[in-house]
Design goal:
By secondary structure, the protein is of the alpha/beta class. The chain has 7 helices and 11 strands. The strands form 3 sheets. A 7-stranded mixed beta sheet has the order 3-2-1-4-5-11-10, sandwiched between helices. Strands 6-7 form a two-stranded antiparallel sheet. Helix 1 runs parallel beside helix 4.
């Protein structure tokens, strides 16, 4: 998937425009974050009091505040100044150091402090980043030996920009039954497509789809090893969402999110 400076500029522009809407709608967490993603992130990252944690593409600082309240000292960064302004407004926690850093800029990443971090988190953002190889290479330098990197992401197999969510009504011997499924038309070849993270979002933003192999290859090449994986689906009794085909409750066997842990080899 070729990426250039225009991809990165488009992504930054979109998130600057969407920052106010995103902050109001996401706030301190919606169902997707609180029920689906955060329990798996917390399990795999397991922040410990006094640790230094890097929060990559922190957005409005939701995860930064969660990590700080768990006792971690957090260095959080994003390339959207508008997003960081909302993060600063929402929390005056002294344990959080917010910085504006472009994750595709290796020198800016290394300026964060080499071999200083016990762990790093990138929550629901890798699919929004035009180039991830720069981050993976920098993490090997930023993390301490055996330091862990946890990321959550839209599941590329089941919840990519080419996914169609479906509901099919069937009469089974007098009982009307709705079967929920997803239809996938593109997966192996990386592609970029604009879309909406939330209904009502002012500006579509680019999604950079990568298959699992394309997603993990830069990390493996950089020297990170995969040692934890969670595939997250809503429980059947968690119904809701903005449309009749929302992920909440209807797709209990299909995970819309994936959370993984990687480690810098000692």
């Amino acid at each position: 998937m070729p990426q250039n400076e225009d991809d990165n500029l488009q992504a930054r522009r979109s998130w600057d425009i969407n920052a106010e809407f995103w902050d109001k709608r996401m706030g301190e967490g919606n169902d997707f974050f609180n029920i689906l993603v955060w329990p798996a992130v917390e399990k795999l990252l397991y922040p410990v009091t006094g640790e230094r944690i890097l929060d990559v593409a922190c957005g409005n600082g939701l995860t930064s505040r969660r990590l700080a309240r768990a006792g971690a000292r957090v260095t959080a960064f994003d390339f959207s100044e508008a997003m960081l302004n909302h993060a600063r407004k929402r929390g005056g926690l002294p344990e959080i150091d917010y910085r504006i850093v472009d994750v595709t800029n290796r020198d800016a990443l290394l300026d964060l402090e080499v071999a200083a971090f016990d762990g790093a988190l990138c929550n629901m953002a890798l699919m929004d980043i035009a180039r991830i190889d720069t981050l993976m290479n920098a993490l090997v330098s930023l993390l301490r030996p055996n330091g862990r990197f946890v990321f959550s992401i839209l599941h590329p197999c089941f919840n990519n920009p080419a996914t169609v969510q479906m509901g099919e009504l069937e009469d089974r011997a007098g009982d009307f039954v709705t079967t929920y499924s997803v239809k996938i038309s593109r997966y192996l070849t990386p592609f970029t497509q604009v879309g909406l993270a939330m209904v009502g979002q002012p500006e579509p933003h680019p999604y950079f789809h990568r298959s699992l192999s394309a997603l993990l290859a830069p990390a493996f090449e950089a020297g990170l090893a995969l040692d934890g994986l969670e595939e997250c689906a809503f429980p059947a009794d968690n119904l809701g969402g903005f449309t009749a085909l929302s992920w909440n409750g209807h797709f209990k066997e299909i995970p819309p999110a994936l959370v993984a842990r990687m480690r810098r080899r000692a």
